[in-house]
Amino acid sequence: MKIKRQKQAKKTTSFYKYNFGFREPYQILIDGTFCQAALKNKIQIKEQMPKYLMGEIQLCTTSCALKELETLGNDLYGAKIILQRFQVRRCPHFKVPVSASACLLSMLGDNNPHHYYVATQDFSVTQGLKKIPGVPLLYIILNTIVLDKPSQASLDHVQAVQLGELVSPAQQQSIRTLKEEQGIAPKDGVRRGRKRKRKQSNPNPLSCLKKKKKKQGVPTPPLKKTEDEGKKKRSRRTKQKTEGGDGMDAPIAANT
């Protein structure tokens, strides 16, 4: 039975590894209910979890999960001691703590970008996790740790990727790697689509000339007349003929 469970766990781990980009060390997000069940069933989480997943792990929790155990009193004191040994990941509810279930779901977002495994016994959390693709679920049953089968949301996501409707996280990472090798990927801190700076050119010399100021009070000169209008008409002088018709000019009579 133990060998069968490990084979199933290896198969599920490979499913998340190749379809959602999970890598070692696996980050396991734990709440107080899982620690309480481990304490009750005498399960050593740090020792048994790496053997079950067959890989390196990082156990972590949130400040909201610790606060919840503190408010529940001495009944969960042992679970609180176990949970305090794990890394505390920063959550958005630092000033105003919320319930552990709401905090865990907020850490996963819509697509679990940080690749968390979630270890919990809370039914409300498990129902919320099954709606998010790419979230492995761990729980304790019959004194053993069990990795749940992929949810229907995860299976639908993988099927959509295979049909070409979506791009898997692994494919996105390979695309980014290829772009970096080709030198076409945007560098960190540089916004995509940034406009290139134009080279500074010399100003237009005509734009640097001072504008001529019009003199006030001086009438504007009249427009020049055309060449034809400016010429005076020449009068033609006719010669007076004599009675004899010799064509000579008649003498001018002198005053007597």
Account of the protein in words:
The protein has a domain at about 1-170: 5'-nuclease (Rossmann fold). It is built from eleven helices and six strands. It has helices spanning about 1-20, 30-40, 45-55, 65-70, 75-85, 100-110, 125-130, 150-160, 170-180, 205-210, 225-230, and strands spanning about 25-30, 55-60, 85-90, 115-120, 135-140, 145. β5 and β6 form a beta hairpin. The longest helix has 19 residues, at about 1-20. The chain starts with a helix and ends in a 26-residue tail after the last helix.
Q: How many angstroms separate the termini?
A: 168 Å
**What's the shape?**
elongated
For the residues shown, what is the average pLDDT? 79
Number of strand segments: 6
Strand order of the largest sheet: 3-2-1-4-5-6
- The run of helices and strands is HEHHEHHEHEHEEHHHH
- CATH architectural name of the domain at 2-171: 3-Layer(aba) Sandwich
Helix content: 40-55%
Structural class: alpha/beta
Low-confidence stretches: 241-245
**Largest sheet data:** 6 strands, mixed
Looking at CATH, which topology of the domain at 2-171 would you report?
Rossmann fold
Pfam families: Fcf1, UTP23_sensor
Family: Belongs to the UTP23/FCF1 family. UTP23 subfamily.
Subcellular location: Nucleus, Nucleolus
GO biological process, one term: rRNA processing
